[in-house]
Specification:
With 357 residues, this protein is an alpha/beta fold. The chain folds into 2 domains: 32-231, Rossmann fold; 245-356, Rossmann fold, CATH 3.40.50.40. Helices cover 32% and strands 19% of the residues. It contains 10 helices and 14 strands. The protein has helices spanning 3-27, 61-66, 92-106, 123-133, 156-167, 258-265, 282-293, 317-320, 330-340, 347-356; strands at residues 32-39, 76-85, 113-117, 140-143, 177-181, 184-187, 192-193, 202-203, 211-214, 217-220, 245-249, 269-274, 297-302, 323-324. The strands form 3 sheets. The protein has an 8-stranded mixed beta sheet with strand order 2-1-3-4-5-6-9-10, with helices on both faces. Strand 4, helix 5 and strand 5 (177-181) form a beta-alpha-beta unit. The longest helix is centred in the first third of the chain and has 25 residues, at 3-27. The radius of gyration is 24 Å and the shape is globular.
Length: 357
């Protein structure tokens, strides 16, 4: 065989081998996902596998990751223990710490997404707060569980597996902050905790879930509504506290002095979980008028699970200086109002925010 021809064949063989190995390496390169743990039931432990009593935040993030089979086939995973509380003890401080850490991590080119483990009681509030202040279109996914790690058929491991799969999926880019529980993907704007203890606790009763993730396979149905993440005007850079906003729960014959008491206690904003279409009794309406004249911002939401609060329904907000929460429930309306009050805004400007977000 001609020596030159033989050498050319050798070079071609080496080139093909190197090219194949390079392509294989690129195809198997895993995304980098950071899991930020905050405690909650997913990290809880109890004395009995069938009892309902347990203590939140007993399992640290490294042990949680190691307990999920095949999770490291989805991504290169690192974990950080950001907080360790039951979500009934979630605080503005933890929110701010989370938001700043997420923004720092997602600004790095070698971080592709974030997963947050969180208790379910206030998970929808944390998710909505983050979707307003995270400054990246990379996926941010909250998950948790309804059963502690020691329970029979604990739901935490599969929820965490699916959350990592979603955060690692390139198709999840641009969906804002999401919540993954029980094989379902919900947007932070829409998701609500609807049932006390079953695993199907989270629903998006008005807009519907935005997708599913079943054993790591992701399918999206539609994009979430409302402004979020990179399209949001809110920022918590340099913010160390949020203005005080209280919630009053309306009912038949509700005490008419509660709003006055909140104003006296220093509330900068008040959200009313009104009956029906955000309604309250006549005495409370007069208290709303006193509060808004004193410079306190009042938002009318509803204790009813779904539906928008009308701006010109039984209560005409412009007559009382109040604002409609639109589709936001009271707890999410509180989150938006706290952020909105970081700068001076009039009633009309606030109303615009509640329609857009």
């Amino acid at each position: 065989m001609n020596t030159t021809l033989f050498n050319m064949k050798k070079l071609l063989t080496v080139f093909l081998v190197v090219t194949t190995l390079t392509a294989f390496g690129e195809s198997t390169k895993l995304p980098n996902i950071v899991i930020l743990a905050t405690g909650g039931t997913i990290a809880g432990a109890g004395a009995s596998s069938t009892g309902s009593a347990y203590t939140s935040g007993q399992v640290k993030i490294e042990a949680m990751i190691d307990a999920v089979p095949n999770i490291r086939t989805l991504a290169n995973i690192t974990g950080e223990q950001t907080a360790n509380v039951g979500s009934q003890d979630m605080s503005v401080k933890v929110w701010l710490d989370l938001a700043n850490r997420i923004n720092t991590l997602l600004a790095k080119p070698d971080v592709d997404g974030i997963v947050i483990t969180h208790g379910t009681d206030t998970q929808e509030e944390t998710a909505y707060f983050l979707t307003l202040v995270v400054k990246s279109d990379k996926p941010v996914v909250l998950t948790g569980s309804m059963r502690p790690s020691t329970a029979l058929s604990a739901d935490g491991p599969l929820n965490l597996f699916n959350a990592v799969a979603l955060a690692a999926n390139p198709a999840a880019k641009g969906y804002g902050v999401m919540v993954v529980m029980n094989d379902e993907i919900h947007s932070a704007h829409d998701v609500k905790k609807m049932i006390t203890t079953p695993v199907q606790t989270f629903m998006s009763p008005q807009e519907g879930l935005i997708g599913t993730v079943i054993f790591g396979d992701v399918l999206f149905f539609h994009h979430p509504g409302g402004r979020h993440t990179t399209n949001s005007e809110f920022s918590v850079t340099g913010v160390t506290a949020l203005p005080r906003v209280d919630i009053i729960y309306a009912c038949a014959d509700v005490s008419t002095d509660l709003i006055d008491l909140m104003v006296k206690a220093g509330a900068k904003g008040i959200v009313i979980a009104g009956v029906g279409d955000g309604n309250v009794n006549a005495g409370t309406l007069e208290a709303i008028k006193r509060a808004t004249k004193a410079g306190v911002k009042v938002v009318r939401a509803s204790r009813v699970p779904t539906g928008a609060v009308l701006i010109k329904g039984e209560v005409v907000d412009t007559e009382y200086g109040s604002v409609s929460s639109d589709e936001l429930n009271p707890q999410k309306a509180r989150v938006l109002l706290m952020l909105a009050l970081l700068k001076e805004r009039n009633r009309d400007e606030l109303q615009k925010l509640f329609i857009e977000y």
